[in-house]
Write a structure and sequence with these properties.
By secondary structure, this protein is an alpha+beta fold. It is built from 5 helices and 10 strands. A hairpin with a 7-residue loop joins strand 2 and strand 3. The longest helix has 16 residues.
């Protein structure tokens, strides 16, 4: 009796598909290569990376989101152009680069409003933090859920709020970066990831 095997797409194939799709909607090759790492970080951990990248690339393709503009002298604040969402593809790579310069500074919070796919930014920062070894907390709201994340050198903890608690972070697309010692918002939150990151 012959065995039946379910054919699945390999991680490499999935990464190549994302790369081609990103370049296809006009994302520069270097940024597309970086965003693949973000998506794979999420996908490997069972988070909905496919939905996040599809939403982000669709927003860029339709012109609903844009790379944004730098709003301060420190070059760590980015905001969308009027009437647009802030592209998570560009914000993710922008913040990955910022990690290499010592960002986020102690005592300062960063709020990025109207991000089209905040989960993608989590994947990018978690992946990049393997090298940067910073400690910080993220809070963000997707269309369906709110999340609280703590990243420290070599590990990540992700809590997901119950649907009724999403009002705590006020609005889908809001992405906040804070110091690691900031009080977490874990009331009635479900732990969905607690792991030591691959070295």
């Amino acid at each position: 009796m012959a065995r039946r095997y379910r054919v699945r797409q390999s991680v490499s194939e999935f990464g190549q598909l994302i790369l081609k799709a990103a370049v296809g909607v006009g994302v520069p090759l270097g940024i597309a290569e970086d965003i693949v790492q973000s998506v794979l970080w999420l996908q490997i951990r069972g988070l909905p990376a496919d939905r996040s990248i599809c939403q982000a690339l669709t927003s860029l393709d339709r012109g609903d989101a844009n790379p944004g503009k730098v709003t301060d002298g420190s070059r760590h604040e980015l905001e969308a152009l009027p009437g647009k969402k802030l592209s998570s593809v560009y914000l993710a790579v922008f913040l990955m680069d910022a990690l290499q310069t010592g960002w986020p500074a102690i005592g300062k919070s960063f709020i990025y409003a109207g991000v089209d796919s905040p989960l993608l930014v989590l994947g990018a920062l978690a992946w990049a933090n393997n090298e940067a070894k910073r400690s910080f907390r993220l809070q963000f709201v997707t269309d369906e859920q709110a999340f609280s994340v703590k990243l420290v050198a070599g590990s990540a903890t992700v809590h997901k709020f119950q649907e009724q608690s999403t009002s705590a972070l006020s609005g889908a697309g809001r992405f906040i970066v804070q110091n690691a010692d900031t009080q977490p918002c874990h009331d009635e939150a479900e732990l969905i990831l607690d792991e030591r990151l691959a070295e």
